[in-house]
Model the fold of this input.
Amino acid sequence: MITVENLTKRYGGFTAVDDISFQVRPGSVVGFLGPNGAGKSTAMRMMTGLTPATSGRATILGQTYRELHNPGRQVGVMLDASAQHPGRTGREILRVAAVSVGVSKERVEEVLALVGLTGEEAGRRVRNYSLGMRQRLGIAAALLGEPQVLILDEPANGLDPQGIHWMRGLLRRFADGGGTVLLSSHLLHEVQIVADDLVMIGRGRIVAMGSKDELLSRGGTTVRSTDDDRLAGLLDKAGVPVSRTGAGLTVDAEAEVVGRIAAEDRVVLLELRSGGSEGLEEMFLDLTAATSREGDAA
Amino acid sequence: MSTHSSTDTTTAPVVGGDPSTDQHRPATALEGRPGVPFSRTLQAELRKIVDTRAGLWMVVVMVGLAAVVLAAAVIWGSADDSSFNGLLQLATLPLATVLPILGIMAATAEWSQRTGLVTFALEPRRGRVVLAKAVASMLFAVLVLVVAVAASAFVNVVAGTGEWDLTAAVAGGLFLAMMLYVLQGVAFGLVFLNTPISIVAVLVLPSIWGIATQLIGRLETIGEWVNLDRVMVPLFAGEMGGQEWAQLATGVAAWVLLPLAIGTYRVLNREVK
Done:
């Protein structure tokens, strides 16, 4: 359980995190999605007591982070996989953390196996790790104390597609066991694979939140036909809002409505479906365009 | 569900999770005092001093320097100085310069390599981490001092005068001086939170101040009170009187305690990024 209430961080006149509130329940993997500089990392640092909040508060399992007894046993935290001493081996980094958390050396080998780092890789200095290996090491460190809650900043960054699917399996099992996961990402397709629920943030504010399916269905209907121009005209005539995308049309109506109009006028459809990743992608771009860095220039 | 009132009364919108299916594990915090026991923090900090090449070499260099100085004393030094006391004084001479660097490296590591993101997430009470770093550095200084004593004793027997002339006052003074130097390193490290800047500062600032107090007449009396190297001289010699202790106290206050206080304040309040 992670509870964030009216959390705000201001640096001088700049508001990095602006009055965000949400609660992540046990059993869920929630993606914290937003463009770079949206305030994801700052919010996560405030949740873990590393950055003092200007106002509002965050609690984990009902306590503020600083009140937690042996936090490593309750919350697995990875805020930057690259923030490790390059001269230490992966195994040594985990052993030092194990001393602090109070778990055995055997547990270190267990989590190494869990994240798929071999004995040889664990014995290498982190300087020679790929970003993907550092992410796995960071996840291992987060899991070390068998916590109930995971807070992970950009954990899928640097992983190959296979690695992203592996992470999904790992986090899903963790949540199925009653765990709570909050992970951030600035890549929609990545977070779509890993998370089930989304909190979207842009310029420090929450712009949307809900289950992935719910957010997906808001994307309208995607349709492609042998004659998109004619279909667009027919839809327009029927008073159905329609817009062109690179690969067909996006229609703000149920798939059935679109299908009937096409059937009446014998337009051959090649594709017809609700939402789809393009829909969510578009929404993500829409939601963040107004608040992202690129938005400033537009 | 949590029995904590703070979560039950929250107005934050819920995302994810199914409230109808109860969790396999109760989502409540572990009972117990905040943070982790100090003994474990200390153990982790001790390990961090020597588990990197830089840290390990630091200890090797200190032992090596003491050995080189002792060897030089035997080869080129006058036989009269080669008593136990004389040898130990020589062996600890380079340590006074190098020990602060050990303290600096312990204090700055979390920030220069950004490992603080992990360290301070595991123990949010940063003051305890600072204390553990100071204690760990001093323990290593003790270890190095023990080696220096053993080496001096060995050389004294093998090639020295064989005279055991170390007084309790000198031994105590040496010990205290070494502890103060390593603490000075920790303090400077905490102030700058950057290894190279801290090392330069700890080597250069006292020298500049020392030269300034000698060149500028009006500063001379102040120099007697707040020049760390100068107030430590009687400590090494085991000639501490009332005024010497007072001068040591002011010197330590200015060069160790003040930066320690400023640095600790910085670490406690700084954002860990």
